[in-house]
Amino acid sequence: MAAVKEFALPDLGEGLTEAQVVRWLVEVGDVVAVDQPVVEVETAKAMVEVPCPYGGVVTARFGEEGAELPVGAPLLTVAVGEDEGPSASSAPLAEEGSGNVLVGYGTQAPAPRRARVRRRPQPPQPVPRPDDGALWSDTPVSGGRVPVRARTREHAEGLVGEPVKNPAKNSPPATVAVISPLVRRIAREHGVDLTRVHGSGPEGLILRADVERAAAAAESAPAPMAVPPAAGERIPLRGLRGAVAEKLGRSRREIPDASCWVDADATELLAARRAMNEGPGRTKVSLLALLARICTAALAEFPELNSVVDTEAREIVLLPAVHLGFAAQTPRGLVVPVVRDAHTRGAADLSAEIARLTEAAREGRITPAELTGGTFTLNNYGVFGVDGSVPIINHPEAAMLGVGRIAPKPWVHQGELAVRHVVQLSLAFDHRVCDGGTAGGFLRYVADCVERPAVLLRTL
Length: 460
Hints:
The chain is of the alpha+beta class. It has helices at 86-89, 148-156, 167-170, 181-190, 208-220, 239-254, 267-277, 287-301, 347-362, 436-451; strands at residues 3-8, 18-24, 31-32, 37-42, 47-51, 56-61, 68-70, 74-80, 101-102, 105-106, 140-141, 144-145, 257-265, 307-310, 315-318, 324-326, 328-330, 333-335, 338-339, 376-380, 399-403, 407-413, 416-430.
């Protein structure tokens, strides 16, 4: 007989807890194979096609296109074929899965079952009075009923299966399963979350007095100020926009940032780029790639800005590799692809990788892994035709370099007034990792390389 399997939204990695259904790739009644993509979802990081670990007939779908689902919510159900009988069940379990997995689920074979251990007879347990508002289980134990917490403790002490060394880590969290009607009604009327109430009764059971104390504490807390609803169109702050809002807000809350900026004559840098790109068959080097190469050279001189702050340990962690993020505008919004090991790449290699990641981001093919793990960010907002800005640091990084547009302006060059191509550079940095002298030295080094690209020859 066919069995119906439920497939839930898997953990897509990188700390993502929800995803939005963009497009269903199958209909109810379709036949799907193992690992066939069944739905396209959008996370705060990227668009992802989710494969189904079951093969069979789709019997139901959950969530319309545009709906936002949490990790673990049902996606669809699949009716799989009949069991093959004893001969099939005796096949090696390792051959049952395809091995194609996402974080938190996969089509690999299930773990072998442990042998059942027979429960040892237990002496009768004292039964609390039923009118004390205690938490009860209807499971009979030696002729009576035992509180749920007591039964959970017995399980943790090894009455079923092997002994558990750390119940807090290995057993599922206790839940409020059954409670006396009176206590339940009081909690419901006062909006008390019973999972957050510490019971004072026997074995930590929740009593009426516990709920009343929790309700009194909630009522005495200052009520949040009511904000009148603003008129106008409301746009849900979710998906990529919600992720950007959360990250920028966290940066402002946690990082004591400071900034400095300088104007630089980029005329020689533009001339050097033209010389690099002359001749047939050469890989074209972009201006952003040259700026990225300048950043990696500057970070080698000032490694404090390629770091993170471990707030719990109260330590600054200097990072050995430069994973350079760069801001890219896409139809979905602003994203920050990351060039891995940028400090090991030359200008041509950086240009090719930046172009690849930018194209993938604009087409929605970029993966979450390519959008995370940066250690320093380069933001070229000059493409929008603006001269300057003070960027917000990409948490948890320590600094971000902003580059404005390169525009012809009057400039004193070799003692004479001339029209030169000038750019404004701005640096936002975490004041916990360094003082202004280090930040100013970094920015001055970048400006010197922009004005005199030959300075980079020392790092080759």
